[in-house]
Amino acid sequence: MKSIGRRTCLAVGIICLLLLAAALLIARNSPATGYELSVYASTPTLVWVFLLLAVVGGLFIIVHQVVTEDCESSRVWLAGFLVLLLAHVSLICVPYVRGYTTWFGDNLSHWGHIKDILSAGHFTKFNSYPVTHVMLAQVVLVTGLPLSGVANLSTCFLSLGFVLSAYLLATAVLQDRGQQLLVAAVVAAVMPFGLYHVLLMPNGWSILLFPLLLFAALKCEGLAYLVVALFMVVLYPFFHPLSSLMVAAALVTIVLLTLALRYVFGRPRKAATAPPLGRILTLAAINLAILLPWLLSFEEHVRRERLLWHQLLTGGADVIGSMGESLEKVDVHGLGFLILLVKMYGVELILIGAALIGGILLMRQLRSAARDVRSLGLLSLLGLMLLFGSLYLLYLVGTPGLGAIGGTRLLSYTMIPTAFLSAFCMHHFVTRRHGPRVAMGVLCVIILPAILSMLSLYDSPYRLRPNIQVTETEMAGMEWFIETKDRSLGSTYIMRPPDRFAHALLGYEESQRRRSEFSSYAPQIPDHFGYGEFATLGDQYTRTTYAAITRFDTVVYSTVWRKVGRFTQADFEQLQEDATVTKIYANGGLDVYLIRGLGAAP
Questions:
Q1: Rounded to two decimals, what is the model's pTM?
Q2: Nearest Cα to 420, choosing from 457, 460, 374?
């Protein structure tokens, strides 16, 4: 019977590989032709169906191997793991296969930091997250590949590394092969960090590398693991300060929980090497010793520390109130709010719920003879989830100081341990009751968040957010604008400030130091172009100013953000008739206007 099951699993694996190949081929034959409000709606439905079927097939293979306990004697589960890894990569790469140029926001600014290193040979004083940019600059120099391709695909490889390192960490904190495989299934099929799996962002990279650091720290009784752990804690302050702080908190938590467990229950009853607490505490100290002076050497972080002190004295921000105002703008109430909540946080709610059940089961095991030394590592992950989750809840209720350190990111750190505790929970029920119903239940627990994470991986109207795609015409138009504009004149915008494009095209230092007319603090164009109060746009400016309006700007307020009411199609039509405004450039992705201010020469 087991041989029949193995052949079935291998056949499912082959079908899944064919589905993935077909999905990418269909996506390749349906290239993007401009800005798309939603990558989901613009990509043929078969692409997403085939990707989902491949994920389900990969999960079926692993769950089958776990439920039948065949994973202990065969390696058929590798076929399911391979399918999930390829599906994971394919999902991230679909936009690039369809010809997407890149993504807006910090993503473009990090291109600029890489360009600085390539042109100057070193990172500049503006760069407080240099490790990511130095690594990618080296890849560009060694391989000769274009910066755009390296920057776009780099996070995909980090996301793949996250899956592999999570499996490694599972081998250190879970004793059963089935538990370890369920962790691999969860992290490969579910992507709770959203765009952190896609965008080039140092904070995202530092989160994706978190399991590898924890694995090395828990195993650092060995010299090789100690070297890896030491190397990573030295680098982490240069990845991102918040992640570095969370690393220190995680390492200290591991030490404290291990000591507390020993005090309450005594040493583990099964012989094994316990985590080297002295070394782990030393790693935390080294991390903090590097982080603090590094933070104080950048004015950007000094300002954040001042904000932290100010919030401690005056009180934190009303985070929930701000969320309510945002929902009010898009007219979301009642049932619509609950649906949006599931869309935005359904993955987190499911995994945290399963993880909490797993935590209860773990506490029961700690009191029994089944406890072994690996339970210390899993208990540490439970402690980290509760620590980070509590900090996030405190941020939501407006606890002073947490907003200054980027409290919204704390949810991502909370999600890191959930896969391990969820797998522990699922495996508990698998071992208690065998049969197809249990297997189906485990599959559903993983597939549901997998579907939700697939639908929320990219911003789209599904979650009341427009796609942050940057098109080739936008980049070409902004390049023309940056090279051609009169440097003595400023510029304004609606939603996409030109300084982001200047970072990517000129380099961050060039745009910040030598092109001062590009400023992230430049005023935005007033709502409805101010036509409700003024006859022309020029009446609102005292000097001649450029206005860079992208296709994104003209689409979002007539579609996904229509209820916000900032702009209407009539506003853009009136702009074309405005005597004080002259269109000087248009390429389908970007329109550049010259606004003749009232005090300026004609």
A1: 0.91
A2: 374
